[in-house]
Amino acid sequence: xxxxxxxxxxxxxxTFGDVVALDHVDVSIARGQIHGLVGPNGxxxxxxxxxxxxxxxxxxxxxxxxGAPVGRTLAAPDGVSGFVDxxxxxxxxxxxxxxxxxxxxxxxxxxxxxxxxxxxxxxLTEVADDKVRGFSLGMRQRLGLAAALLTKPRLLxxxxxxxxxxxxxxxxxxxxxxxxxxxxxxxxxxxxxxxxLEALCSExxxxxxxxxxxxxxxxxxxxxxxxxxxxLRVSNAADARTVADGMPGxxxxxxxxxxxxxxxEAIVVRGKVAAMDELxxxxxxxxxxxxxxxxxxxxxxxxxxxxxxxxxGEASVPASGQSAGRSPDQHSDAAVKPSAGQSADPIPGQPxxxxxxxxxxxxxxxxx
Length: 368
Ligand SMILES: Nc1ncnc2c1ncn2[C@@H]1O[C@H](COP(=O)(O)OP(=O)(O)OP(=O)(O)O)[C@@H](O)[C@H]1O
Hints:
27% helix
């Protein structure tokens, strides 16, 4: 058994009717890291997370968590907790009562074990006695995280945990996840926020229409040979433009939104890393101050867009659908595969021992 691997999936296929949600997915997720799952709407992220939480069972393929095969029954695998589609909570109970109810289901003798600590960890101590009915989306997300933490998971699985979080809440949750991982746990989360993923994750898996189109370390997405748009804020945009104009490998991007959003002292140029290095050197030699230099879209976002390029509606093609990704030879040495297929249903509202389904106002038998 490879002890460095938390999750290993091979040939995982999950269909819902004629829709292929996961199409022969191979994935290997290292222990002790935060691993990001990213992909367009309908790519299969929630379906995959649901399999990890025991909310659904794959039609084909094998899935192992910490070396143990995931069974064919709907039950959360040992040491795994989290939620998909938002945490299920009892709106008429307080935050504290929600957590106590979950603990009571497991430890009838000590129903409050760990509740205060979990609320403190997610920053909800002050509203511990408030009814969840009045909670904002962000507060519910944090309470769902607290519910998952109660089980002291070795693998925490979260579907878009940053939904509804304000910047302070997001920072707090990032801190919780980083502490968890520092303590040896593994976190797998999905997000549409590339900045969150870049801030948190060492590795990502990009899904497109049910297939893995990239899986590996984030740095492998920074392809120096790919042209990117960069925004430069300088002390004199007109002079910087003159320097860039006609330089080999550099193209000035006119009418870019990124310029409009910035200020009069910004230009946007397109080029590869080597050409950008030369441009920066020339700008400095021309006594122009370079105040900011950043890609208009991050390497992760650029790779995401390139790898999941699709036309409207393509994300919902049935089992016989077309490939939506680029071919492997268009990418670097990370695990890149062609994409295709399409997806289907995470199990309908099946709360399990640790995982919770939809956060409607209907009480779920929640995050135990
Ligand atoms: N219970 C279900 N019944 C039928 N189809 C389903 C079911 N759950 C998911 N699907 C379909 O499977 C595909 C993958 O859905 P999934 O929710 O896994 O995607 P996702 O990547 O999480 O999308 P999003 O980013 O929009 O949350 C979609 O086409 C979806 O319509």
